[in-house]
Specification:
4-stranded mixed sheet; ARM-like; proteasome; 11 strands; RPN1_C; mainly alpha
Length: 887
């Protein structure tokens, strides 16, 4: 019993330990000397006290003992400070008071006293970092409070801020330095303290911070980041920032400052993937190679090499995709139903054939001897899309594709000729040839009196020259907009004009569209579903340009509802697509719950009523405005993972409680947030919607499944689509959509993607996003457009089709195979040390197919990468000083 001790006894023993008693006595003696009047003793005592506090060591979870024991004397120190005549002693005392003010006793009276900062500024201002990280953090918080309160930064305070930033940058607290300078709007101080060892970590953090501030502040931050990358010769990373800023001057500067041939080619690959226009100077090394890269002339040859490596050159027939033999046997009458509605199913097979064999140049329906026969198995407008599928087969192959397509241009059937014109545009999509074959072949039909031929050539030009903003192309398309007499011709011309001038705010295109719309303000044409496409074409001019839409939005105020709300929402959707802008999302959420109020209808006369019986009158569904808003939610929120997740939850409520027209947009918005990303939760959600009693909701959900699984060959999705084919066997429209989705899911035999995001999701391709929006907006009224005679709008997806590859080349642009580790991307922003960037690692040899959210890194030290991330086409440089060792 005598050996047992209570916890209180142990604590009392600790409290009265000899070491602590000695320290308390020493501190008390020093305090007494400081409070006396002999200045020699005061100065010496202050120096000793300062030494004791600075050299005290303790655990990170407890207060240093000198501070704990000196806390009761805080007010006495302040009183002594006021009475000290010696300025040097006064400064030493101020330093100690500043440190002691961090304690709980000192701050008990006034939380806003800011004594720590106040006395620090009155102190010596020397070696403030010696007081420790916690003191620096306390100072930072009070500096932010002070600047918020006074909106001023005096020279003394600015010097203190620089000392703090210098300390943070020296001792691995760069993130704190960035936060402090962003809070007080003094980020321009930072570059002078950035060196080679920390610039990468700082730039990565600032780049991510730019997503959560207003546009002006974001531009300022990103410009600083780009300047640092240029300073340290990280030209590839600087180019990504410059493209995000849409800063042509900075892009030109990067290309001029970069003198390494391999890096220049890598810059060209990044710009070419984004379709960003670059002017190459004559003195640039390897100019011919760089121009070819920028024109995407390499795409087809590299894709053919990939297909050869993966051994997938053998063409696939639609039946190989449908796999009807796997459908449940008791319900096999689906085959009978396909024969009954053969025209529609043949049309679906044409699309499936085009998507599945896209870029391969071979198929089993069109490129053989029976190509003509297959086209004639389609009826009327179906022949247009069947012929246009040739464009997908020869995608990016301008030299090899023109000859087999051109022969159909001499057909006597206008639908086949129009399909050929469209195919010629698709072949040239994203590829620029010096001979301009698309312009030479299509220009003659732009003003053709036959509307079918005109539409084929106009849309073909839009697809062939998307994102170029070429004046010679626009000089053909703008008159086509102004001369249009039907809603369909006008909408196709607007789409083409918007595609060519995408994201440029081209005044001629936007004014010609707006002028025509205003002229038709009282016209019945304005109520046609095709006008959705016309307004979308107007929106393309302002794609990603945010506030630049103020002028056209004001012009649209002259229109009556619901067209006014529809048009303004489409403009906002295009301008903010992929930005994740919180304010626009909030505005869209508010609009989702507000129904558009329609003006009171004018009473009709008996004569008008009798006419209406003979001819159905076109009218907008007021809920279409809300449906466009829902689709806009998906387009804007796709730029941010958190926003995207929140959007999915909101869309769930809209899908349960919204009006029928609004519910039709929900699957499309969900698909926009998961393009070529077949998450199980998304597939399950869309599969539920695909059984909806509303056939339009079901059709849109089925198509959304195709977009979500585009180019992935996802087995679970393929099984769901086969079940849907059986379930909708007697519904021609739904079955048509199922076949389309099956074609999209196996697009490029599983080697392609529709996702507009690339370069590790750092860049969004507005041309690809535009191609995605065309069919999705058209599906807001599916039976009027995609399921009607305008199914050829689906070929706008050609602008979004890209291989989902990782292809490695040497500096001479020859393919090389290297081992790489592939895994799920991990966010490492702001993390200490050198954390792993990928998880769930698998080692492969390039070329490699990358799934959504996957990231790759080199597995050996044999090569050095010239690209910022291993994604797309990457150039590797042989290391001269490293052995081939595992990283």
């Amino acid at each position: 019993m005598a050996l047992t001790t209570t916890r209180a006894e142990v604590t009392s023993k600790i409290e009265v330990s000899e070491e602590d008693k000695e320290l308390q006595d020493e501190l008390k003696t020093l305090v007494n000397k400081i409070l006396c009047t002999d200045m020699k003793l005061v100065t010496a005592a202050l120096e000793m006290l300062k030494f004791l506090i600075r050299t005290s060591t303790t655990s990170m979870t407890s207060v240093p003992k000198p501070l704990k024991y000196l806390a009761p004397y805080y007010l006495q120190f302040k009183n002594a400070y006021e009475k000290m005549p010696d300025p040097n002693a006064k400064k030493l005392c101020a330093d100690i008071i500043s440190v002691l003010s961090m304690g709980p006793i000192s701050n008990a009276g006034d939380q806003e006293s800011m004594d720590c900062l106040k006395f620090c500024l009155q102190g010596t201002l020397k070696s403030i970092g010696d007081w420790g990280h916690e003191y620096i953090r306390h100072l930072e918080s009070e500096i932010v409070q002070y600047v918020y309160k006074t909106s001023t930064i005096e020279p003394t305070l600015e010097k203190l801020i620089k000392d703090i930033v210098k300390f943070n940058c020296k001792f691995h607290a760069e993130i704190q330095a960035c936060d402090l300078l962003m809070e007080i709007d003094k980020l321009e101080i930072l570059p002078s303290f950035i060196d080679k060892s920390i610039y990468s970590r700082i730039c990565l953090y600032l780049q991510c911070c730019a997503k959560y501030v207003d546009d002006l502040e974001a531009d300022k931050i990103l410009k600083l980041v780009a300047e640092q990358y240029i300073r340290f010769k990280e030209y590839s990373k600087a180019l990504i920032i410059a493209i995000n800023l849409n800063n042509d001057k900075m892009v030109d500067e990067i290309f001029k400052k970069c003198i390494d041939s391999g890096t220049l080619k890598q810059l060209a690959f990044i710009a070419a993937r984004q379709l960003y226009p670059i002017e190459v100077d004559d003195e640039v090394p390897d100019k011919e190679d760089i121009v070819n890269i920028l024109n995407n002339n390499h795409l087809n040859s590299h894709f053919q090499n990939l297909a050869r490596e993966l051994d997938i050159l053998e063409p696939k027939a639609p039946e190989d995709v449908y796999k009807t033999w796997l459908e449940p046997t008791p319900l096999r009458p689906s085959v009978l139903s396909e024969n009954v509605d053969s025209a529609r199913q043949n049309l679906a097979a044409s699309f499936v054939n085009g998507f599945v064999n896209a870029g391969f140049g071979k198929d089993k329906l069109l490129t053989g001897d029976d190509g003509n026969r297959w086209i004639y198995r389609n009826k009327d407008h179906g022949m247009l899309s069947a012929t246009a599928a040739l464009g997908l087969l020869y995608l990016w192959d301008v030299d090899g594709g023109l000859t087999p397509i051109d022969k159909y241009l001499y057909s006597k059937d206008d639908q086949i000729k129009a399909g050929t014109l469209l195919a010629l545009g698709i072949v040239n999509c994203r590829v620029h040839n010096e001979c301009d074959p698309a312009l030479a072949l299509l220009a003659d039909f732009v003003h053709d009196p036959n509307n079918v031929l005109r539409n084929g050539s106009v849309l073909g030009l839009g697809l062939a020259y998307i994102g170029t903003n070429r004046s010679d192309i626009l000089s053909l398309l703008i008159p086509a907009i102004e001369e249009a007499t039907t809603a369909e011709c006008f909408s196709i011309a607007c789409l083409a004009g918007g595609m060519v001038s995408i994201g440029t705010c081209n005044g001629e295109v936007s004014q010609s569209i707006l002028a025509k719309l205003v002229d038709w303000r009282e016209n019945e044409i304005l109520k046609s579903p095709h006008l959705l496409m016309a307004v979308l074409g107007l929106g393309f001019c302002f794609m990603g340009r945010k506030d630049s839409i103020d002028a056209p939005v004001e012009t649209l105020e002259v229109f009556s509802e619901p067209f006014c709300s529809i048009a303004k929402t489409i403009l906002h959707t295009c301008a903010y697509a992929g930005t994740g802008d919180v304010f626009i999302i909030q505005e869209f959420l508010n609009n989702c719950g507000e129904k558009v109020t329609m003006p009171e209808p004018v009473p009709e006369t008996k004569a008008e009523k009798s006419k209406d019986k003979k001819k159905a009158k076109l009218e907008w569904d007021p809920a279409i405005a809300q449906a466009v808003t829902v689709l806009g939610l998906g387009a804007v929120s796709m730029g941010d993972e958190v926003g995207s997740e929140m959007c999915q939850r909101v869309l769930g409520s809209v899908g349960r409680y919204g009006d029928p027209a609004v519910r039709r947009a929900v699957p499309l918005a969900v698909a926009l947030n998961s393009v070529s990303k077949p998450d199980l939760s998304v597939i399950d959600l869309l599969t539920k919607y695909s059984h909806d009693p509303d056939d339009k909701v079901a059709c849109n959900s089925i198509f959304a499944l195709g977009v979500v699984g585009a180019g992935t060959n996802n087995a679970r999705l393929a099984a769901s689509l086969r079940q849907l084919a059986v379930y909708h066997a007697k519904n021609p429209s739904e079955l048509f959509m199922v076949r389309l989705s099956q074609g999209l899911a196996h697009m490029g035999k599983g080697t392609m993607t529709l996702s507009p995001w690339h370069t590790d999701r750092q860049l969004i391709d507005h041309c690809a996003l535009a191609g995605l929006l065309v069919p999705l907006v058209a599906l807001l009224d599916p039976h009027a457009l995609i399921l009607g005679r305008s199914h050829y709008l689906l070929y706008a997806l050609a602008t979004a089709i890209q291989p989902r590859w990782l292809l490695t080349l040497d500096e001479n642009l020859q393919p090389i195979s290297v081992p790489v580790r592939v895994g799920q991307a991990v966010d490492i922003v702001g993390k200490a040390g050198t954390p792993k960037t990928i998880a769930g690692i698998h080692t492969h040899t390039t070329p490699v197919l990358l799934g959504s959210g996957e990231r790759a890194e080199l597995a050996t030290n044999q090569y050095e990468q010239l690209s910022p991330v291993l994604d797309g086409i990457c150039i590797l440089k042989k290391r001269s000083d490293e052995t081939d060792s595992i990283v």
